[in-house]
Every structure is written in structure tokens, then in C-alpha cells.
Amino acid sequence: MALTEVSCNKIFGGLQKVFSHKSKEVGCTMKFGVFVPPQAEENKKLPVIYWLSGLTCSEANFIEKSGAQRYAAIHGVIIVNPDTSPRGLNIPGDSESMDFGVGAGFYINATQSPWKDNYRMFSYVTKELIEIVNLNFPVAEGKQSIMGHSMGGHGALVCALKNPGLYKSVSAFAPISNPLKCSFGIKAFTGYLGPKETGTWSEWDATELVKKYSGPALELLIDQGMEDNFLKNQLLPENLMEACKNVSFPAILKKREGYDHSYYYVASFIGEHIEYHMKNLTK
Amino acid sequence: MALTEVSCNKIFGGLQKVFSHKSKEVGCTMKFGVFVPPQAEENKKLPVIYWLSGLTCSEANFIEKSGAQRYAAIHGVIIVNPDTSPRGLNIPGDSESMDFGVGAGFYINATQSPWKDNYRMFSYVTKELIEIVNLNFPVAEGKQSIMGHSMGGHGALVCALKNPGLYKSVSAFAPISNPLKCSFGIKAFTGYLGPKETGTWSEWDATELVKKYSGPALELLIDQGMEDNFLKNQLLPENLMEACKNVSFPAILKKREGYDHSYYYVASFIGEHIEYHMKNLTK
To answer: Residues in the active site (chains A, B) (predicted)?
Structure first.
């Protein structure tokens, strides 16, 4: 589990680093970002927030465009953001579209060939990456939350809902809230999990998972730009909110008038989300 | 002078727009960014800060990576950032290196063929762009300041020093402070202005220009990361500070320990610079 430091830049008094390592779960070299805030110099153990990015992203988009480091430096929290899929494997069909394969791992564990040996982003994020981070950075173990954007917003919800108690809190910017019911999700699940008839799709859909969650109290913080081009056909947050309402699952939907799906939108509210997670991480 | 809106994204309550237009000064279609803060909705006339980017940048880098919109929204200031050179002209030799031609206009007016008809970024920034901005946005005329990074940091200094009174204040992140004395500058000046013997180079070098400045009181705010790889061989801020000292030109050098030349560094201090300019713009 040796890490190679790819880059290190000082920002807002902390260090934004990128590491690469050989992943057992996904069977290739993976990169991830780690922002280490200035408070780490005081030999403190710090909480950590994981960020999962959306379709087409690598680890770079969040690091360069979200502006999260400013808030993380104020609050003294480590932020870790993995890549969105395995890379460099050259599996036939892995680079033909923006919504499947490279850059589109959907944070699930595939069951179908030729994807099942590598497209295991769920286990990578919820097990291997946490082990690596706990071993290599000054993390207060167990003090972790998760958030994400679009495909990664849904990924954050699924990671939290399938691992009760693992994360202290979860939030999502413009998540693909009900992949069973939108074309991005149907394409990904068909490829990674097989046809709908396999019956496994609902294990990877947040709107289905809230219905059978059992574990420590958890609240879903959903954030949504109201001028988001994907809102009506792909994101479907109303389906998730309806499911939450039906089973009395605590959920908040923050509607942001005039905002779209971009990192300009994410940058505008990432400070609020970090503050939200810190409240839960310091309880 | 018709403008075409290329993009518009809501961020921090304001609008980050990109426009394209046909430029008379540089003879091609140019793009520039404009952040219009939320205060514009109140029908107020607002101050404006111009940002000049560095080598290899388009208008996109600053917009995506600086995080400036957050501070501009708080202070109620418009931020305008042009591209760094003409584009799409296919002048032989304009795309062979990162430090000459496309992405490397150096904010000067070239005198040598084949550059002199188009590489007129100085006139573009200090005349044409200001006219366009004043005509199309709710600008309090005359309430303008200028700042920039690297090549654009030097560009900001030169624009201010050659136009006494035009800008209320000027600041520069890691400027190429004395282009006469570094390889980036010597290459650019040789290409755009001809050999040193023409005697024109000093008209475009901030360290020379402070020696003969005559006009309203002006202060140079110079910002410099101390782990900047270009510091010793290309940026030479100590030459500028020495020249300022010799002629009692007010200048401040802010040294930032541990910071490099990247937008991670710019993002960390852009808020301070905007605050500095606002103090001068609201005097």
C-alpha cells in the first residue's frame, strides 16, 4: 500500500496533495487527492470528509475548481477525493462514452464481465481508501463523512446507506438520485450489473436503499441547482424525497434558484456543506 | 463592438459570463470573462477590477481556478479578465513555444513583422476592452483597478505605469518583474520589438518604467510565493523593488512562505488583493 506523491501545492495555509497507489480492489494504479489543513502541523488527529466526483471527472476537477480548501483550512478537516473509475486498463468498451467505463464507475461493485474484476469503486471507496487514509494521514479514526456531486453525489448516498454508522453524515450536490429511473443509471447498471431482471439494481439505488435502511440515525442533505440541465431527466431528487417521506427518513432538499450543474454551483455552496459535516463530526 | 455571450453561470449569487467579440486592436475574435456581482441587480454602478493572466492561459484559468468570485460578490465589484493573446490567426511561429505567440502576448504592442498588426494586447487591454466594458456593463466609469499573475502581473504593472491615473490601484502575483533581464522577457521582446539595440525594450519593462513615472500617486503591491520555481531566474522581484527604492516609488512586496507559482497560490491570496483594490476604488 505504498503511496507515491504526485504533486503537493500549498493553498490556504494547508497542503493539497495528489497520491497514486496500486489498488487491490480495482486492480490498477489509482490517484486520489488529499487536502491536509494547517491544523495538522499541531500533531492533532483530524476529521476527514470524502468527496466523490461526477461523470468524466478525475481527481483534478474538485481540487482545482471547488474552492473547498479554504473552508477545510478554517475548520481543520482533511478532504480526500478519489478518481471516478479505474483507469488504464483498456477494457474493450471502457472509453466509448462519457457515462460508462472510464470516468463513470458509479461507485458500485460490478458483477458482470468484463467489468467485475476492476469496477469495484464501492469497495475501493468504503474500504481500501479508508484504510490507506487512516494509515497515512493524521486522521481521527471513525470521524469521517462523505459528500459528492452528480454521479458522486449518488455514490456518497449509497456509500452511507449501505454502511450504517461508517460516516457521521452525508451530503450530495445534484445527485443522480434514482438511477433505476434515468438513462445514465439504466445504462450503467445494465453494463455493470446485468439486465434489470437480475434483481440487483435496487441494491445500488439510493431511492430504494432508504426504504430498507437500518442503523444509526442518518440525515440526507441534498443540494440542487434549479437551472440544472440534468434535473428533470437524470437527477430526479423528488423521487428520493418522496421515498424518504414515505419511510420517515430524515432528508433536506436545498433548492438553489438560478444555479446549474457546474463546479461554479458546487463552489458556491461547498462551504455550507463542509460546515454541515463539521457539526456532525464534532458532535 | 457587438458582444456574443459564450457562457453564463451563476456563482456566489452573481453571474460569471464569457463573451466573444471582434477586436479592432488585435484583428481577431477575442474572448473575455466578466463576473457581475449580485449588487448589479440593484441598478448600482460598480467598480471594476481587470485581471491579466499568465503564459499559456486563456480566459478560463482565472475563472475556474482563482475563486475570485466569492470575494467580488462580497465587495460588489465587477471582474473582467481577457485572454492572453490573439488567437486563430495562424501566424507562422505563433504556436511553437509556451512563451511566445499564442497564449503569450505579454500585454505589449509589437513593432515587428509579422506580429505588429495583431499582437497589440496593451492597446486592447487599456483602450478597447475598457470601452467595451464601460458600454456593456454597469460600471462606475473611472473606478477601475488592475491586477494579474506572472506575465499578466507584469502586464498589470506596465498598463498602470504607462497610463498614469487610468487605474486607481495595481497589484501583481509573481510578476515577471524585469523582462529585460530574464529569458522569457528577452525572447518575447526580441520577437515582438526587435533586437535590444532598437532601444524600445525599456518602454515595456516595469523595472525601467518606475524610474520615469510621472503622474498621480501610485503604489505597487507585489505578491510572491517563496517556493516559486520561476522566482530566481524569471521573476526577479528584487530588481523591481530595488528600482522602486532608488526613486522612492511606493512598493510593497508580500513574501508568502511555502507557496509556488500556481493558481493554488493565487486562490489563497486573491481575496486580500480584491480587498486592497476596493480600498483604493472606494476612496
So the answer is: 150 (charge relay system), 228 (charge relay system), 261 (charge relay system)
